[in-house]
From TrEMBL:
<comment type="pathway">
    <text>Purine metabolism; IMP biosynthesis via de novo pathway; 5-amino-1-(5-phospho-D-ribosyl)imidazole-4-carboxylate from 5-amino-1-(5-phospho-D-ribosyl)imidazole (N5-CAIR route): step 2/2.</text>
</comment>
<keyword id="KW-0658">Purine biosynthesis</keyword>
<feature type="binding site">
    <location>
        <position position="12"/>
    </location>
    <ligand>
        <name>substrate</name>
    </ligand>
</feature>
<comment type="function">
    <text>Catalyzes the conversion of N5-carboxyaminoimidazole ribonucleotide (N5-CAIR) to 4-carboxy-5-aminoimidazole ribonucleotide (CAIR).</text>
</comment>
<dbReference type="GO" id="GO:0016829">
    <property type="term" value="F:lyase activity"/>
</dbReference>
<dbReference type="GO" id="GO:0034023">
    <property type="term" value="F:5-(carboxyamino)imidazole ribonucleotide mutase activity"/>
</dbReference>
<keyword id="KW-0413">Isomerase</keyword>
<dbReference type="InterPro" id="IPR024694">
    <property type="entry name" value="PurE_prokaryotes"/>
</dbReference>
<feature type="binding site">
    <location>
        <position position="15"/>
    </location>
    <ligand>
        <name>substrate</name>
    </ligand>
</feature>
<dbReference type="GO" id="GO:0006189">
    <property type="term" value="P:'de novo' IMP biosynthetic process"/>
</dbReference>
<comment type="similarity">
    <text>Belongs to the AIR carboxylase family. Class I subfamily.</text>
</comment>
<dbReference type="InterPro" id="IPR033747">
    <property type="entry name" value="PurE_ClassI"/>
</dbReference>
<protein>
    <recommendedName>
        <fullName>N5-carboxyaminoimidazole ribonucleotide mutase</fullName>
        <ecNumber>5.4.99.18</ecNumber>
    </recommendedName>
</protein>
<feature type="binding site">
    <location>
        <position position="42"/>
    </location>
    <ligand>
        <name>substrate</name>
    </ligand>
</feature>
<keyword id="KW-0456">Lyase</keyword>
<dbReference type="InterPro" id="IPR000031">
    <property type="entry name" value="PurE_dom"/>
</dbReference>
<dbReference type="Pfam" id="PF00731">
    <property type="entry name" value="AIRC"/>
</dbReference>
Length: 162
């Protein structure tokens, strides 16, 4: 069995419809990954262990999504040198601006690479993780190059009414 190279983690089951976008692109690009619910507030011990063990388990990037008081990405970053990519999940009360601010304003020394709010951010988070893994995986790098070329080719040169 292939060991996961990327962790896709989220604060709640309710984050999964958003974070599935990260999982989907990792799947499409053939990057081994795992998915976990790891809440900074509801399961802090699980979060602690996940951060402490991430590097030794061979994870090369973690995509962490959370909403509201979104402390998961930052707290994970405080426990591991594995790059953490934060995804602000869109909330009903404040539209995800709360999540964004909670994730993006990290203190000096503990960075979180913060993506856009919502599904696009989650998709880009998965893509960013794949690009990190590709730094040491030429076959994956070639798959990403092909994926990017296909995306570019799918964009029409002129707009239409359709
Ligand atoms: C955060 O609280 C989670 O990341 C989620 O976005 C939000 C709401 O969680 P639920 O009440 O839906 O479980 O910790």
């Amino acid at each position: 069995m292939t060991e996961p190279r990327v962790g896709v983690v989220m604060g709640s089951q309710s984050d999964w419809p958003t974070m599935k976008e990260a999982a989907n692109i990792l799947e499409e690009l053939g990057v081994p990954f795992e998915t976990r619910i790891v809440s900074a507030h509801r399961t802090p011990d699980r979060m602690w262990s996940y951060g402490i063990e991430a590097a030794d388990r061979g994870l090369q990037a973690i995509v962490a999504g959370a909403g509201g008081a979104a402390h998961l990405p930052g707290m994970l970053a405080s426990k591991t040198r594995v790059p953490v990519i934060g995804v602000p999940v869109q909330t009903r009360a404040l539209s995800g601006v709360d999540s964004l601010y909670s994730i993006v304003q990290m203190p000096r020394g503990f960075p979180v690479a913060t993506m856009a709010i919502g599904a696009s951010g989650a998709m880009n988070g998965g893509l960013m993780a794949a690009q990190i893994v590709a730094l040491s995986d030429p076959a994956l790098a070639a798959r990403i190059d092909t994926w990017r070329k296909e995306l570019a080719a799918s964009i029409p040169e002129e707009p239409s009414d359709e």
